[in-house]
Amino acid sequence: MKKQFFLSLLLNLGIIFLILSGVTAYQKGNPLIVGASIALIVVLIYLKIVLLKHVKLDFNAKKAESQKKPVAKKETKKQLRK
Q: Hey, where are the domains in the chain?
């Protein structure tokens, strides 16, 4: 789960950086950079959606697994002494 969190953070930072660079390139009048920024933003958003779907599937699988296994009672110290 740490890996997915880290990847999500990097994707968010990449999207923000590309938006800022695209806006700056548009203000400077550089259409090549604007086009490249838009293309990369689309790719990063696609990867973010795929990552979110993967995390959702993992979460649902863990939830279903935990519901199938009954949680054992913790034994108290008195029960252990007997």
A: 2-58
